[in-house]
Amino acid sequence: MNIDKLLKTYNQTLKDIHEAFGYVEDWVTIPLQDLTDEEWGLRMSDGKHRFDIMHGKGTGVLCYGELDNLDGDYYSSRIYTQRFLPKWIYKTETHTMISVNTGCDGNKYLSILSNDKQRVGEGFVRVEDTWYFTGEREGYQ
Questions:
Q1: 51 vs 139 pLDDT, higher one
Q2: Helix, strand, coil share (%) of the chain residues, nearest 5
């Protein structure tokens, strides 16, 4: 196994993914998390400014921003809002990348999700309707 070749391939792939989303790494290297096979949605978590991402897969239907009564593995994480990032949600035509804090063991990820698996309505909001996507921090506490 050629480690040098693997590292070059890995570094180029990471660079290509960042460029596809318009993401510029700064201060901290946040690992990627592939959630492209899971349904997901954004829900307001405090009634004002904070949103959570919910994701998972199973036989239940992700709706009303709740994890109750779902069969399968579903999770909720806070959006990781660090001031060194200009925004925390990056979107392409087919995928969305969200900076998340799992709230467990200090794990943070750039979670990549498929746009066709996003839930909207029934307790969930559109990515474009959040200040996490626009980077507009006015009014954020």
A1: 51
A2: 20, 35, 45
